[in-house]
Amino acid sequence: MTDPTYDPSSDGATMSFAQEMSYGDYLRVDNLLALQHPLSDAHDEMLFIIQHQTSELWMKLAIHELAAARAALQAEELARMFKMLARVSRIFEQLNAAWDVLRTMTPADYTRFRETLGASSGFQSYQYRMIEFILGNRNANMLRPHAHVPEVHAALASEMARPSFYDEVVRLLFRTVDGSSDAMPAPQLDRPHQADAAIQLRWKRVYEDIDRYWTLYELAEKLVDMEDYFRRWRFNHVTAVERVIGFKRGTGGTSGVQYLRRMLDVELFPELWHLRGEL
After folding, report:
1. Per the domain annotation, does 172 fall within a domain?
2. What global pTM score does this model have?
């Protein structure tokens, strides 16, 4: 049992922050906790807001890590890149776990405040779109919901105009296996990455000679691991939405569950999944 007379300052803990930076100061906790503004008196709206705000924070970190991972890959600092990719997988593990909290909200709970959302929808998350664009799932139509925020639209358009993270991985693959990236297919900048036979052939060589291509093999498995968590996030999204609103249209006008189910078929790194049937 804790001694009620214990004084942490006796062990050296700082207890006065008039001249020192505190935990709350560093994290700007007051600002953070002032960002939740329910628009109804429904109890569960606070849950809904915090669920999505914390998800956006995790996605901000994922973008931070993926951008650094791409820079590390371009600089051939692969050990640093591996750590960042592993962290992104753990971030999506956290995002997956968050759905378990949202599932405690019943359809009756959500109905009490759904109208206050207007046309707002997770479909419009520009950070989620940025993650998809970085990884290679690109669709120019997805820029349109962000046209009203010029700096966001410009950032997404800029990302779409450059090779994706996976394009950089493929360049490394060809350079290592072929000794040159000259035969590498052109990056698919403005559309979802589609499986390419030439890319799959190089990955097959890697998996058939792991000892020779251990670094590429390790990279491939980290990509599969990351996409595995990403797919689970999408699946959890579908089941959470179906559990709460059934097959109603989404607040943003999409077909709701039907739209989300179509997203389950998207493959970020298709060659790495398809080659498994050939090994």
Report:
1. yes
2. 0.91
